[in-house]
Every structure is written in C-alpha cells, then in structure tokens.
Amino acid sequence: MRLKWILFLVLFTAGCSGLHTGASPDFDWSRVEKVSVQGPWEEYQELQKPTLQEVAAMGYDVVPHSSLKTDARLELEVAEALDINEVGAVFSRPKSLHVRIYDADSGTQVALADYYLSSTQSAVDGVKELFAGVKKERSSSKGENKSTAAAPEEAPPVSVPTVQAEAPGKSPAPASTPASQEQEAETSEWDPAEKKKLSPWVPRLESWGFENWGKSREGDGLEEMMK
C-alpha cells in the first residue's frame, strides 16, 4: 500500500512542468560581458552544448569556469527523481534543472531559474525553457531596460525666399525736380496776407501831410518814378 502511494505521487507530479525565476533588482547586467559556465557535464554531457549556446545567445562571451577574467559565474544543476516506465520498472531521470548566477566580484547570487520537467520532456528541451526564464528576468532588471529618450524632432527647414540682387552698378540718380515744382516748393511757405514792405520815407512824408504818398493809383506812374 505504501509503495502504491509513492508511485501515485510520482506519476501525479511527473506530468507537470513549471518555471520559477528570480533576479536581484540591484544587479547591473549591462556590465556583464564574460560569463564562466559550470555544469554536470560528466553525467549529462548532452546538456553542455545547448547550455553554452544559450549563454552565447544572450550576448555573453563564454570563458572557462577557472578563468579569472569573468564578470559572472553561471552554474547548472540537474535534480533527479524516481520514475516508473510502462512495464513497472523504477528508474531515475532528470526531474528539474536549476541555474544559479553569481557576481564574480562579490560572489553574491544575482539570479536564479528553476525548471521542472514533465514526464515526456527531455532535459535538452528543458534547457531552452530554463534560459527563456533567465532572459526574461534579465530584460526586467537593471541595466537592460535602457530607456532611450526620444530624440528631439528637428524643426523642418524654413525656406527663406531669396531676394534677387540687383545688377551691380551705380544706383540710378533721383530724377531732377521740374523747375515749376522747385518754384512751388520755394513759394509754398509764402503768406498772402503779409503786407508789402514800404519805404522808410513813407511815414515821414505822411506826417508832413502827404497821406497818399507811396500808395499806387491806377494810371499813376508816380511809384515807378520813385523807384
């Protein structure tokens, strides 16, 4: 009875797959260029190539795990579980894949991803799903969402109308004012009510009784004679 219950739990959980991811919000992914990768290649050699390909697809240079020139360390782990086949035989198979990423400088864990395989899913397919979760965490972390402010739109060029330059040469001299206009301009300030200037002798002659001295009369040529 106890064995049947264990087998029931194994079969129930075997058909389920799931992904769990997490990342430190303070880790700056933009400074990561070189990543060292370590995994259980002796037991699961078939996982080495797809794992290295996934890391390279993220834009990182893969370096040996023992390299000192690295920005982050990635470790892949495989957890196994018991399973039962169609003939009732119990065997061990990969149950889940786990990735841990550490900052190479401080040794602090900065990201993780756990993927639980279904009973019909291979570990190689699980690697792809696992790193899909890693990429998702990276894209939502610091240093990946580089907000590029929209560049200010350039103002459309303003077309300035070109003024046609005059042919070089002497500028035309102003037209000469007609004589009649010059005379009119000179006499335009004349006051018709202004009295004609009289001879200085007129007042003296008038005081002597010659009141009409200097006054013109029709048909009288006296004024012309005095000139």
From TrEMBL:
Which residue intervals are annotated with compositional bias (Basic and acidic residues) in the record? 135-145
Q: Which residue intervals make up region (Disordered)? A: 135-198
Which keywords, in A-to-Z order, does the entry hold?
Signal
What this protein is called in its record is: Lipoprotein
Q: Which residues form the signal peptide?
A: 1-22
